[in-house]
Design goal:
Chain lengths: ~190, ~240
């Protein structure tokens, strides 16, 4: 039950985009088309899950025994960069169709602050291995959910007559604000 | 005849149009999250200026000897080391600011502005220019943070306060601007952040459109003047 609460809270109530403002770059950049939003969401789920587990292992198996906790930030960001590079090579070799579809978005995941945040969050909150797994799946799933909802809204938004100054990103921020308002009603549920 | 020249744009005008946050949409995550109060905005702004100036300096120094294939990991390590130093410093001297900024201090590492400036500017310019560029970019970032946090603080709480993080958050000044009946509570929540950002971004984009139109009008006027002069010259020749 506790794990379910954790899952629900990480996915919806403390949604990484709408309450913590993380991963805004892909949220704004990749949300113009539904298809690329789904691709990006899937890639982010995979990368956050993998990178969080790896950094969890790195922290408790290497940094803690060697008393190198202050190296956390540097090692985590390098691990994430290396992991993304590895995933990119792997996908390119074994799933060229998917690679083509994801295009530029794959390498850009390194600079997605959500990845580093989840990896660090698992450590600062002192999660166990199972809690880490649940948190690292639920958080990017929440990200993907918001990205897909947002992309469908933006697709319709493009067909409307918007004041010139608001066209493009400014109106998208207003939409995101309304979404945040809607989802804030979930706060305090768990 | 007086010559038509494009107007010279001042420092503030440039700060608005070349702004990394509102103009290029870089570093939005921290901008949206930190802009809850003036204190946080200034603290975060100074932290980013510190990292940005030093990373630009270090990267402009090591860029010539960095192999091309691994330059991004090298830059990231430089930035991460600087952020670790900053984190320890804030933890030791300004514990309140440290807990207010929370995870966003370490997330400066993935702030696109810093890696972006390293890639686009510092790696191909000398130390002094890179430091200047870092300072300019850091100041524009701080400027946008302060703009958003001021709007949110005034509409959300009605009070402008500034406190000193080095002295246990002792209040430096506090002014009631808006009576309590006119407050909009959600401006302090996440929604207010998105709304304020959207409206300010629209204002910047409107200002840019206006500048562009003015430029076009000036160009048109210049062309018309040139055509007129040409016609006059031709008429004289005929005469």
């Amino acid at each position: 039950m506790n794990l379910f609460a954790l899952f629900f809270s990480a996915m919806l109530i403390n949604n990484i985009v709408l309450t913590k403002f993380l991963g805004m770059c892909p949220f704004m950049g990749v949300s113009t088309k539904l298809e690329s939003a789904v691709g990006m969401g899937a890639a982010v789920i995979f990368v956050i899950f993998g990178a969080s587990l790896l950094s969890y292992a790195l922290y408790y198996l290497v940094l803690v025994p060697l008393d190198l906790k202050y190296m956390q930030l540097i090692t985590f960001i390098l691990l994430i960069a290396a992991f993304v590079q590895f995933v990119e090579l792997f996908v390119k070799k074994y799933a060229p169709a998917l690679y083509k579809q994801l295009g530029i978005y794959l390498p850009l995941i390194t600079t997605n602050c959500a990845v580093l945040y989840v990896a660090q969050d698992n450590i600062t909150k002192g999660y166990t291995l199972i809690e880490t797994i649940v948190n690292s799946i639920a958080t990017p799933v929440g990200f993907m959910l918001m990205l897909v909802i947002f992309a469908t809204i933006r697709e319709r938004l493009n067909q409307n007559d918007i004041p010139k100054a608001f066209r493009g990103n400014p109106i998208a921020f207003i939409v995101a604000g309304i979404m945040a308002l809607a989802f804030s009603s979930l706060a305090g549920l768990v | 005849m007086s010559e038509i020249k494009p107007k010279k744009r001042g420092f503030i005008s440039k700060m608005i149009t070349d702004n990394p946050v509102f103009g290029l949409y870089l570093g939005i995550c921290s901008t949206l999250a930190i802009s809850t109060s003036l204190d946080n905005a200034i603290g975060m702004g100074i932290s980013v200026i510190f990292v940005l100036v030093l990373s630009n300096v270090v990267i402009s120094l090591i860029a010539p000897i960095t192999p091309d294939d691994i330059h991004i990991p090298v830059y990231i390590v430089v930035i991460a080391s600087l952020v670790t130093i900053l984190e320890m410093f804030l933890h030791a001297f300004t514990p309140d600011l440290y807990s207010a900024l929370g995870a966003f201090i370490s997330l400066i590492v993935v702030n696109c502005i810093i890696l972006g400036r390293a890639e686009a500017y510092a790696c191909s310019h000398n130390i002094v220019d890179s430091a200047k560029d870092g300072l300019m970019m850091g100041l524009s970032y701080t400027f946008s943070l302060i703009a958003i946090s001021l709007v949110r603080q005034i509409l959300g709480t009605g009070v402008i306060t500034l406190s000193n993080p080095f002295a246990g958050n002792a209040v430096v000044f506090s002014v009631q601007v808006l009576p309590k009946t006119f407050l909009i509570p959600f401006m302090t929540a996440e929604t207010g952040s998105f709304f304020t950002f959207g409206v300010l971004a629209a204002a910047v984009s409107g200002y840019k459109n206006k500048l562009e139109e003015e430029e076009k009008a000036i160009e048109k006027a210049q062309k018309a003047a040139a055509a007129k002069a040409k016609a006059e010259a031709a008429r004289k020749e005929v005469a």
